[in-house]
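Cross-check.
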Amino acid sequence: MSEQDFATKFKISKNILKNSIAPKRYEHSLKVVELAEQLAKHYELRLESCLIAALLHDCGREILIENSIDFANKNNIKIDRVERLQPVLLHAKIGRLLANKKYAVSDNEILLAIKQHTTAAKNMSRLAMAIYIADMLEETRDFSGVKQLREQIGQISLEQLMLECLKVNFNYLFKTKLLIHPKSVKAYNSIRATL
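Predicted model, tokenized:
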């Protein structure tokens, strides 16, 4: 795809997204795009893939949380036990479907990055890691330790940064007594085993 074709497609996707999700969620998506662009440069990732995946990572949020189980059932999206108990997680799987059907994204690596941005997964691509990290560390996020994590961008490997983000997420889930998705544990273990 030429640079001009990509710019046109990206602009169209931005306009559709802006009219599909809440303004605050849209602004968050733009911040994720900004950080994904930095990550692409630091870690030599394909820029266009990072930008599209970052922009559309939360496109599934157009479906309200209280409607997400019904939407998933009607669209043959498998729901596991943790997602049934914490349906907010389903927006990633729903997002994968909408990115493909509504935004005409056919690149499977981009679709997987969208699908994996909430729970992570075993053997994630570097693109998927970048989207997970960008979603967690974009500039409006404000949690204890976020500044230190941002400072590590480009200082440690993408895989090490992903591990640090997963650790922070686990601590948050422990403190709030939420369930930890088994895919998150598998993601941590598969990355940890390679370092």
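The mean pLDDT is 96. DSSP finds eleven helices and no strands in the chain. Passed to J.P. for a second look.
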